[in-house]
């Protein structure tokens, strides 16, 4: 593409960042980054009653966690109100908009009469073609003069060619009687002034597009490329809501999904590249095109999300994984790791990350690295520590005192002791797991011994051999 690509994500700060909004942001980011373009953030904070600084902070935090860095500073739609009003007056001067003095009561009376007569309730203002000389000295709104004949056709990159009959498009209000702009006008002015070339957003905006296009035409502005993406549904095929589980992006961080896995999964939710399910950011940026987005709503599948996250955990570099793990603990409201825990867990990541799909699973498997002596043994594991087993552990400890602490030698010593008691190596694994971790399900006993080191391993064995 010869044109420099500019995309934007434009959330309203009236609540948490919805997972659907996060996917919209991701698609805009991927498309811009894959084409060497610009990805902008606009906070649509014109609803002053519902917009909150906390919600704006949550949006920024969510994008930061998901790794979707935007270019430049966030733009506040509210702060651009004078510019929006300026465009409304310019359309008025061009004869593409008009002053409408109809009151709310008059508009409602028109609609009631239309309903009674079975006509369209789309308001047709008597002021559309009125002589300015007849204008009263009264409050007015500025309405766009929408075409009444023919059709408006939107060539959409996802939905195909979408046609709206112009007699179904109203003369929308652009400027209210108090001089404040409407959302419908503000969006178009902002997108134009920000140089947005591609508007990628939810298909719930499709009908808005038919109205917003009229503003571009009225101002003689270039119309951007539109791509309206289907919404995300729950596993049951119904619109995603809280009854399906988490819908806010921050909840997914607090549930322990790694960001790379979330990016991969959300990209795959409604977009495809052949049969590829698991891919890196670099591949996603290279492959992502609007034509790959399907027209049907995507279904959230937590099992698939977990599987993809597990694959990303396995390939993440240990230092980055530890940093994200600590971010998870903070998001989940859990205590931070101590220096000792960080060191022991960090040394275990090589084998822990290949056996877990989420951070809670990784921490569960890494339990042995997080606990301090004396180890509390859970009930199920305690059953492996009968009198005979404790005796075997007692005979094992002197043999380990002078071991070279390599995996091969540790395996050989434990195997020897097991054989000497007429047991297979597997029979000794249970008591060892209980002594080293206090659990019946753990990583390999030899992996744990190597990480814990000679002194800590012997101390834990001696505690239980007593």
From TrEMBL:
A motif ('HIGH' region) lies at residues 11-21. Its EC number is 6.1.1.17. GO terms for molecular function: ATP binding; glutamate-tRNA ligase activity; tRNA binding; zinc ion binding. It is found in: Cytoplasm. Keywords: Aminoacyl-tRNA synthetase, ATP-binding, Cytoplasm, Ligase, Nucleotide-binding, Protein biosynthesis. Catalyzes the attachment of glutamate to tRNA(Glu) in a two-step reaction: glutamate is first activated by ATP to form Glu-AMP and then transferred to the acceptor end of tRNA(Glu). Monomer. PANTHER family: GLUTAMATE--TRNA LIGASE, GLUTAMATE--TRNA LIGASE, MITOCHONDRIAL-RELATED. It comes from the Bacteria. It catalyses: tRNA(Glu) + L-glutamate + ATP = L-glutamyl-tRNA(Glu) + AMP + diphosphate. It is an enzyme of class 6 (ligase). The gene is gltX. A motif ('KMSKS' region) lies at residues 239-243. This is Glutamate--tRNA ligase. Belongs to the class-I aminoacyl-tRNA synthetase family. Glutamate--tRNA ligase type 1 subfamily. ATP binds at residue 242. CDD domains: GluRS_core.
């Amino acid at each position: 593409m010869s044109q420099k690509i500019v995309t934007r994500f434009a959330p309203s700060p009236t609540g948490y960042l919805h997972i659907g909004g996060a996917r919209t942001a991701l698609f805009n980011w991927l498309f811009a980054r894959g084409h060497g373009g610009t990805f902008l953030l606009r906070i649509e904070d014109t609803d002053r009653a519902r917009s909150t600084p906390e919600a704006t902070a949550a949006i920024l935090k969510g994008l930061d966690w998901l790794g979707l860095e935007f270019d430049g500073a966030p733009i506040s739609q509210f702060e651009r109100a004078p510019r929006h009003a300026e465009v409304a007056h310019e359309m008025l001067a061009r004869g593409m908009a008009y002053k409408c003095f109809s009151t709310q009561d008059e508009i409602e009376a028109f609609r009631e009469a239309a309903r009674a007569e079975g006509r369209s309730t789309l308001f047709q203002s008597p002021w559309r073609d009125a002589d300015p000389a007849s204008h009263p000295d009264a409050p007015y709104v500025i309405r766009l003069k929408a075409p009444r004949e023919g059709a408006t056709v939107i060539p959409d990159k996802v939905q195909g060619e979408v046609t709206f009959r112009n007699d179904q498009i109203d003369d929308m209000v652009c400027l209210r009687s108090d001089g404040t702009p409407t959302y419908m006008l503000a969006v178009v002015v902002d997108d134009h002034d920000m140089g947005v070339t591609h508007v990628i957003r939810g298909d719930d905006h499709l009908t808005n597009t038919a109205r917003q296009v009229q503003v571009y035409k009225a101002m003689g502005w270039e119309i951007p490329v539109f791509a309206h993406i289907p919404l995300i549904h729950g596993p049951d095929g119904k619109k995603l809501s809280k009854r399906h589980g988490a819908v806010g992006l921050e909840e997914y961080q607090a549930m322990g999904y790694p960001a790379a896995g979330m990016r991969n999964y959300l990209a795959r939710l409604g977009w495809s590249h052949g049969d590829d399910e698991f891919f890196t950011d670099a591949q996603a940026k290279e492959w992502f095109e609007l034509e790959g987005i399907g027209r049907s709503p995507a279904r959230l599948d937590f099992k698939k999300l977990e599987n993809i996250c597990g694959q990303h955990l396995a390939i993440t570099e240990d230092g980055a994984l530890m940093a994200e793990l600590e971010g998870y603990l903070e998001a989940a409201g859990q205590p931070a790791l101590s220096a000792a825990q960080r060191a022991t867990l960090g040394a275990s990541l090589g084998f822990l990350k290949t056996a877990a799909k989420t951070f809670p699973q990784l921490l569960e498997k890494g339990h042995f690295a997080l606990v301090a002596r004396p180890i509390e043994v859970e009930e199920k594991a305690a059953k492996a520590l009968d009198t005979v087993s404790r005796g075997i552990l007692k005979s094992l400890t002197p043999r380990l005192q002078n071991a070279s602490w390599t995996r091969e030698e540790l395996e050989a010593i434990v195997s020897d002791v097991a054989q000497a008691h007429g047991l297979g190596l597997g029979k000794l694994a249970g008591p060892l797991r209980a002594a080293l971790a206090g659990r019946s399900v753990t990583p390999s006993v030899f992996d744990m011994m190597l990480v814990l080191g000679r002194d800590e391993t012997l101390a834990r064995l001696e505690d239980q051999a007593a």
